[in-house]
Design brief:
alpha+beta, Nucleoside Triphosphate Pyrophosphohydrolase, 7 strands, 40% strand, DNA replication, DNA repair
Length: 134
């Protein structure tokens, strides 16, 4: 079974909003919302991949990333390990560089069902945290 290592950025601004992008219609888990990120290439650290992918996908230069969680998920034909980073410091303004729709969502308003199943535990954790902080 194919095993993908993926670096994912939870880009959070000072208003406790998180930047989300919509997956392409022709991709795995099409049209779901996701935290931007992508495949970790051989020889790359998770953090290096995160910085490269976020620059490619959202146009930002990550200046600080904090390890937030690691999730292993197995789909029918694919195993993914998601390395989540909390990104709260960057240069530039994130946007959908590849033309993908995007939006900012309040952390407490995230809806797990709008994400691929591998993200459910993470979305639940983010929501729980946002309720503790208010």
């Amino acid at each position: 079974m194919k095993h993908l290592q993926v670096a994912v950025g939870i880009i959070r601004n000072a208003n406790q909003e998180i930047f989300l992008a919509r997956r392409a219609a022709d991709s795995h888990m099409a049209n779901m919302w996701e935290f931007p990120g992508g495949k970790i290439e051989p020889g790359e650290s998770a953090e290096q991949a995160l910085k490269r992918e976020l620059l490619e996908e959202t146009g930002i230069e990550v200046t600080q990333a904090k390890v937030f969680d690691r999730v292993d998920h197995t789909y029918q034909d694919l195993r993914v390990t998601l390395h989540f980073f909390l990104v709260e410091a960057w240069n530039g303004e994130p946007f959908g560089r590849e033309g993908q729709p995007q939006r900012w969502v309040k952390q407490r308003d995230l809806v797990a069902e709008e994400f691929p199943p591998a993200n459910y535990p993470l979305v639940a954790r983010l929501k729980a945290e946002s309720h503790q902080n208010h």
